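Sat 14:20. Reprocessing the chain from the morning session after the first attempt stalled halfway. Input below, unchanged.
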Amino acid sequence: MKKPYLLAAAILCLTLSSLPAEARNLAELEQAAKKGDAEAQFLMGRAYYVGAGVPRDFAQAVYWFRKAAEQGNAEAQFDLGVIYEEGKGVARDFAQAVYWFRKAAEQGSAKAQFSLGAAYAHGQGVPQDYAQAVSWYRKAAEQGNAEAQFSLGTAYAHGQGVPQDYAQAVSWYRKAAEQGNAEAQFSLGAAYEHGQGVPQDYAQAVYWYRRKAAEQGNAEAQFSLGAAYEHGQGVAQDCNQAVFWYRKAAAQGNAKAQFGLGFAYEYGQGVEQDYSQAVSWYRKAAAQGNAKAQFGLGFAYEHGRGVWKDYSQAFFWYRKAAEQGDDEAKKRLAALEGRGQ
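Finished this time. Tokens:
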């Protein structure tokens, strides 16, 4: 899950993407702001934050956001909280971020309620408190905030701040997923794949993985969709499609997908057999600690497939995999030791 300050910053960037027509005449807006108009002060803060009609100036953004926030403008309070999380124009200060998020949240701002919940969940600016996180997530979720709905679903799935309840997790995942939240779409797909909170249904798992999360670039969903195609779960088995989705996830650094792509190259499933490519992808996944890839790399070195035969390297990678409990790696180590290699 993203860190709360990154989520809040993303929300702020979206809200700052444009200014209303009446804000175009910045001279008039500034005059209104100087006269104490809170909405004008808020809009001046946004103008300086994004550099709309004025040079970008975070210190000036903070100045005007604070003016509006101190008059009770909830939007400015939220934006000032984000400014403190980002540390732009001010020293980063999570406690101050929480202070302003709380001000806005108590006025009913859903995005501030979500950000306050995330602060409690991660212990940023406040002691970690999952019950408080859930309380604020719920307020935002009930207003339709998709990030809060996903986070509330995750709380139910893991029993953090609430009793574990997969059915409730699915309910909130679905609400967020239907709004296009890729993380929720992946989690809903996983729920269908594993039968947690819903009857197991591979077709529905694939629907949420593919039609939704994977096509939005979610690497875990892309890997899971590749696995569905490789094993024919919820879709007709199709190694070409498996490789297609593994490659997308692997390019984003997903270790399981990197291993899957390496395996495809090693055995010529969905691609032309290519031991060098297999080793290349195994190496990427192995460096991230993937035990299956570590075993595959050890096997490559033992047999000289895609690399020069090198028993010391074979030992090295088998041992890495064995230390993670890989039984096949333990057998290969024993076999090499028995041959005196």
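Residues 1-128 form a domain with the Serine Threonine Protein Phosphatase 5, Tetratricopeptide repeat fold (CATH 1.25.40.10).
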